Amino acid sequence: MRLRLYLIFGFLRFFAIGAAGFLILFFLAEVLSDLPDALRAHAPFHILPYLRHLPALFVEISPVITFLAALLLVSEMIRGNELRVLEVSGLSPYAVGTTLLGASLAVSLAVLWCADTAVPRFAAGATGSIPSGAIHFSSPSLTLSASRMTPEDELEDLLVCVETGSGQWCARARRARFDGSEWALLEASVWSFNASGDLVEHTTARRARIPIPLTPDLLRDMGRPADHLSAAQIRRLLRRLAALGVAPASLAVAAQERFAYPFLNLFILVAGLPLLFPRHRTVRVVVIGLAVLGSFFSYAVYSFGVALAKGGCLPPTAGVWMFHLLGSLFLTVSVLRDGPFSRIMAQRRR
């Protein structure tokens, strides 16, 4: 047990050093990049928004820090011949690997708490409840876009398209107000299309009323970035939209990412274990280099799966968790092909 605790504390030490170093580096980079503009404009410069961004930054870079911490720990132990000492003391390479996985699982849970609790709380204090900028929403049955939502719950420069059983209708308006049951469009143009996509009717009006199944509070929540919402808020929003017959793929992907991204801390290490613990004698520089390249490859695979899920090419669960499944499969195939984790330091033939 003491040997496992020695490994865990060594891993956490490298993780803490790496996290502090990366956060300080990115914090100074953001501050120093914006400070000259504020000085030239003689505008007040506040440090608090940059501090509020640190939890989100920690979540984003945590998988890289986890993998680097494991690499640093193993490389230092190889340099000091500690792995052989641990093996002689009864801690096999397999136990070393499972201990590192347990430590990375603890890191994943901590990052999940940060992403679901700290990040939304700090973001809400920084931006408030009213979304800024444009609002875009898309689902198989409804597409809506507006340049902004005012504090009075009005939409400016609105464009909306709704699928019906017999075709589709689209409307454009300079401004739209919600009166409790329907949206009132000012200076509106409405186009109606049949099932074949042919234009059936085009009308213009100074004021038109259309049934859009979205209320201002729903649009306000959807206008906020997904990382500013907790997992419970995202699930409630999905249930409210499902009751209206609206199923946005981007929001469903965000609900899966809330759990999948923190667990990259675990599964990047799962996919990298065969590189850290080779069966045969291997040059350690090559092993560490391949492991570093593997971490960037992991991000590419994860981002590719998320893009497929957002584009509707894969279900949200399959796309977001694609790397996790592939990493587990890679580890399983490596173990079955080469047997259990072999001795780390191969004995020399006499």
Summary?
The protein has 2 domains: 2-128 and 256-338, no CATH class; 135-215, no CATH class. Helices cover 59% and strands 16% of the residues. The chain has 12 helices and 7 strands.
Structure description:
It contains 12 helices and 7 strands. It is of the alpha+beta class and 350 residues long. Strands 1, 2, 3, 4, 5, 6 and 7 form a 7-stranded antiparallel sheet that branches. It is elongated and about 85 Å long. The two termini are 34 Å apart.
Attribute tags:
350 residues; alpha+beta; seven-stranded antiparallel beta sheet
What characterizes the major β-sheet? 7 strands, antiparallel
Shape: elongated
- Average of pLDDT: 81
DSSP summary: helix tally: 12
Distance between the termini: 34 Å
Q: Helix coverage percent of residues?
A: 55-70%
Which consecutive residue ranges, at least 5 long each, have pLDDT under 50? 340-350
Secondary structure topology:
Blueprint: H1 2-40, H2 48-52, H3 54-79, H4 82-88, H5 93-127, E1 135-138, E2 142-146, E3 148-149, E4 155-164, E5 167-178, E6 183-194, E7 199-210, H6 216-223, H7 231-243, H8 249-260, H9 264-276, H10 284-310, H11 316-320, H12 322-338
Antiparallel strand pairs: 1-2, 2-4, 3-4, 4-5, 5-6, 6-7
